[in-house]
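ok trying this again, last paste got cut off
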Amino acid sequence: MPPRAFVAGHPIAHSRSPMIHGHWLERMGIAGRYERVDVAPDAFPGFLRGLAREGYVGGNVTIPHKEAAFRLVDAPSARAQRLRAVNTVWLEDGVLVGDNTDVTGFVESLDAGLGTGWEARLPRALVLGAGGAARAVAAGLLDRGLARVVVAARDVGKAEPLVGFDPRRVAALAFVEVERMLGGVDLLVNATSLGMTGKDPLALDLAALPDGAAVADIVYAPLETDLLRTARARGLATVDGLGMLLHQAAPGFARWFGRRPEVTPELRALVEADLARPSAESVRR
């Protein structure tokens, strides 16, 4: 029987993950399936524990199940333990393993968008948000050796746990203080849903950012958020959220289907075209 994988969330109807994995399966000539599964929170434990019975080799987990998946897997990776969240699962000799590929997905999107060596050019980062995505972003930046990562949240208490990643290099900040801090920032990252289609806008004056700074946004619908548009108008380097979506998908595909895929311009163009359709809605995978 061909291997089956999934993306599970609630809601899930507009996830682009089936498009991404379907593209790789077709291009590689692999007989496999990747499907959306809408799983309500109360049904998620039973779903995850029944993967083998349902014929799945593994899959992706998205909102609102990432923290629950961490608690339910048998063997969380070191990255998953650090973030206390899982977005990729697979069965290994009957053991349910969980990982978090958002960490590498984000930094690989910066590699693609900013070029090699961006870590040395942009040693001070300010991350907006303190949720699961922000944890992955902060962890990835620290792993790449950034000297300073400041995490800003409307409730500064929610940012405090991220300081525990590395108290020497991480600080928490109230969101109201963000614009005051921009003069000392090399890389600004929006790791919230602000600016996403159907969500509140992210109103931020970028005038104080240094001329050599870069701005990244994990939102990918729209691809050019107001934040990125403002940054480009200033001549700053920018990275949109689609790269993170694409790069975080590759490790899971390799686990489930046995071959490591590539994030190509062809794949990016395919997803961009889908996002550009008038009816397209934003869902973060």
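PB: full thing came through this time. The CA atoms of residues 180 and 208 lie 8 Å apart.
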